[in-house]
Amino acid sequence: MGTTARTPRHYPRMKIRGARRRRIAWLHGFQRSMDELAGAAGIAAANFDMFAHTVAAFDSAPDYDDSYLERLGREAPPADVECPTWFTWSAFGATYMDTQCDGGLLLDLDSLRRELSCPMCLPASFYEQHYGGGYVIPTCARCERQLPTETPLQWHELGRSLSASAVCPSCERRTWTLMREYADDVLDGNEDVFPLWRPADDESVSRG
Question: 3-state DSSP: the chain helix, strand, coil percent, rounded to 5?
Answer without folding.
Answer: 35, 20, 45
